[in-house]
Amino acid sequence: MKDTHMKALLENQRRFFSSQRTKEVTFRREMLERLRDGVEVYEGRITEALFQDLRKSPYEVYISEIGMVKTELKMHLRHLKSWGKPERVKTPFTLIGSSSSIRREPYGLVLIISPWNYPFNLLIMPLIGAIASGNCVVLKPSNHSPRTAAIIEQMIRECFNEEYITIFQGGKEMNQALLRQPFDYIFFSGSPSLGKIVMLAASQHLTPVTLELGGKNPCIVDKEAELERAASRIAWGKFLNAGQSCLAPDYLLVESSVKNALFSALRLSTEKFFGKNPAESPDFARIVNERHFKRLQGLIRCGSIVFGGEMNDKDMYISPTLIDSVMPEDPIMQEEIFGPLLPVLEYEDIEDALSFVNSRPRPLSLYVFSEKRKTQHLVLERTSFGGGCINDAVIQFANLNLPFGGIGNSGMGAYHGRASFETFSHQKSVMKGPRLLDVKLRYPPYKGKLKRLKMILR
Q1: 212 in catalytic set
Q2: 245 and 277 in contact (C-beta within 8 Å)?
Q3: Which CATH number characterizes residue 332's domain?
Q4: Which candidate in 136, 219, 246, 389 is catalytic?
Q5: What per-residue confidence (pLDDT) applies to 1?
Q6: Model confidence pLDDT, tens digit, residues 69-98
Q7: Max Cα separation, the chain?
Q8: Catalytic one among 43, 65, 72, 212?
C-alpha cells in the first residue's frame, strides 16, 4: 500500500474524529457492545486460528486471550460513564472562589501495533481502552501469526467502518509506512529493540507512546520456599504458550541448598502437566516459526540439560527444558529467551541474588518464592521491575485492577482496566475563575504588595 493511499484513509479518520461523534458516551458504549458481539461470533474461528499459528489448546486460548478480552470489555462497559466524568479537584485557598477539574478527552487518531505471541489479546485489549476513551484507531497485527491476523481483520471490518477503526496487514515495510504518519498516540507491544525504533519514529511528530516491551524476568527461589507449589507455578508460568510470553520467568535464581530438590519438583510438575512426552500433549504449544526455532536451537547449547532438550524442526517443537550450570555471560543470559528453555543460576546469599538482578536492565516482571516475609519485603524494596508476584508467576496479568506495564528497558506506560482508559485519554486541567471575587493583589502595580503576598502564601 502506497503512502498516498494510507494518508487518504487516515485523513478520513481524522475527519470522522473531528465530527465529535466518538466523544459521545452512547457512541462509545455502542462500539464496545459491537466489539463484544463480534468476539462472541468469531470466538470459534479465533480459537482455530490460534491453534494453526501456535498450536494453542482451546483452554489456553480462552484463559490467556479470549477470556481476558471479554472481562476487559465488561469492565469498560460497566465503568465507562463514571470514568469519563470530569473529576473535581481541590483549589488552594490563594485562588479562593475558583473551582478546578480534570477532564479526560481522547487523543484523536491512535496506532496500535501488536506482536505475534498473544496476537488476539495484545491487539484487542488496548483497542478496548482506545474505543472507551473516544479515539479513532488504526490496528497493525503481526504478520508472524497470519491466520489469527486474518480472522481479526474479518471481525474488525465486519464490526466497524474503516473511517473509525481500520486495520493494516503486512510486515516490516507496512510498520515503517505507518510510523511515518503523524498519529496522535502510538501503543506498541514487542521487543525492546523494536520499541526503540517506534519511539524514534514517534519523536519526529512529538507523538506520545506507550511501549509494552519485555526483558529477562528473574525468578528467585530461596530455601524457605514451599518447593512443590513453587515448582508447579513456575512450570505453568514458564511453559504457557511454550514459553513465548513476555511475562514468563526467564531464568531461575535458586538458593544452592534447595537447587536439586527444586529440580526434582520441576520435573514432576512438568510431567504432570504434559506427560512423559510433551510432543504428544494437546496442551503444549509450538514455536511460532523457523527463525525463532533456530534462534532457540542456538541458545540451548549453553550449560547442561537437566531435563528436556528434545526438538523437532518439522513440527516447530521444543520440549520444556531446564538448563543448569549456566554462566551469566552465556548467550542464553544475554537476550530474552521467548521459548520453553529455563536456565538456572544459583546463589548463596540473597544479597548476591539482588546484586545480580540490579546489575541488569530492569525487567518487565519479577517473581520471588519464599515463605519468609523479610525476604519478600527485601526483594520488593531493593529491586525495580514492571510488576510481579510473591509465591506465584504470570497471574498478575489477569488482574485487570492492576496496571500492566514495564519500566526502563521493559517499557513505559501501562494498561488494563481503568489504566487503559487513562492511557488513551489526555487529562485536560481546567480552572473556572470566580464570578464575583477579584483579588486585586495579583495585578500590577506590585509596589508594596510583596509583603502581603508572602504572608498569604506562608
Answers
A1: yes
A2: no
A3: 3.40.309.10
A4: 246
A5: 55
A6: 999 999 999 999 999 999 999 998 888 889
A7: 88
A8: 212
